[in-house]
Amino acid sequence: MQELEERIRRQGTVKPGNVLKVDAFLNHQCDVRLFDHMGAEWARLFAGHQIDKILTIEASGIGIACLAARHFGDVPVVFAKKTQSINLDGDQYTTRIYSFTKQREYPVIVAKRFLKKGEHVLILDDFLAKGNALHGLIDICHDAKVVIEGIGIAVEKGFQEGGRTLRKEGYNLKSLAIVESMDPDQGTITFAHNPA
Ligand code: 5GP
């Protein structure tokens, strides 16, 4: 998606440790017009799929998922919550996710009443690096016995293995921008040809 690539080029900064900072429009300050355009693009990419619900993870997934939902017939958005304590009364799906940026593992929950067996779900998130966050959401989907119709990502870092692994596992993964390389010294960012 050219508009997103241009914004990353213009306002993205490359941090040590393979971290791309895009908090001017995605991870801290939110450009809702851009989010709306991203939602329209995912709707085009997943046209023809039955989507009953969008599943994402807090915090940065929420804004993009809510704007995207407007393009999928205003379906509900459910976000997985990062939590300190897991309640053991069985009314939640739980998993653990290793955070690439925070370098620690944390528990994640979704209330069972918000994911029902047989629902068709689109998973959305802001970044894809090694795929840990998405695999956590996929685990929850499997526990809930929902159908994963597809996975939409804003920024995939194509030089990390998450995208390759998920495509090999057979998921219908569409990323709006795929970063091919980034150089923290020069600040340069290049994009892969994106078949989406
Ligand atoms: P993964 O679980 O695929 O390794 O990493 C994905 C998660 O880590 C995303 O949900 C995002 O929050 C965070 N993340 C990974 N890489 C980056 C990055 O380069 N920049 C930013 N802003 N977040 C990242």
Offer a concise description of the structure.
This protein is α/β, with parallel strands linked by helices and 196 residues long. It has helices spanning 2-11, 32-45, 60-69, 132-144, 162-168; strands spanning 13-15, 19-21, 53-57, 77-82, 92-99, 104-111, 120-128, 147-157, 173-182, 189-191. α5 (162-168) links the parallel β8 (147-157) and β9.
Key features of this structure:
196 residues; binds guanosine-5'-monophosphate; glycosyltransferase; PRTase_dom; Xanthine phosphoribosyltransferase; 5 helices; globular; alpha/beta; two-stranded antiparallel ribbon; purine salvage; Pur/Pyrimidine_PRTase
* Alpha plus pi helix count: 5
Query: Number of domains in the coordinates?
Result: 1
What is the radius of gyration?
16 Å
Reported by name, the CATH topology is Rossmann fold
Strand order of the largest sheet: 5-6-4-3-7-8-9-10
What is the general shape? Answer: globular
The structural class is alpha/beta
> Class in CATH?
Alpha Beta
**Total DSSP E strands:** 10
Distance between the ends: 8 Å
What's the quaternary structure here? single chain
Major beta sheet summary = 8 strands, mixed
Query: How helical, in percent, are the residues?
Result: 25-40%
Question: What string gives the helices and strands in order?
Answer: HEEHEHEEEEHEHEE
Name given to the CATH architecture: 3-Layer(aba) Sandwich
Strand content: 25-35%
Associated small molecules:
guanosine-5'-monophosphate
Unreliable segments of 5+ consecutive residues: none
Mean pLDDT: 95
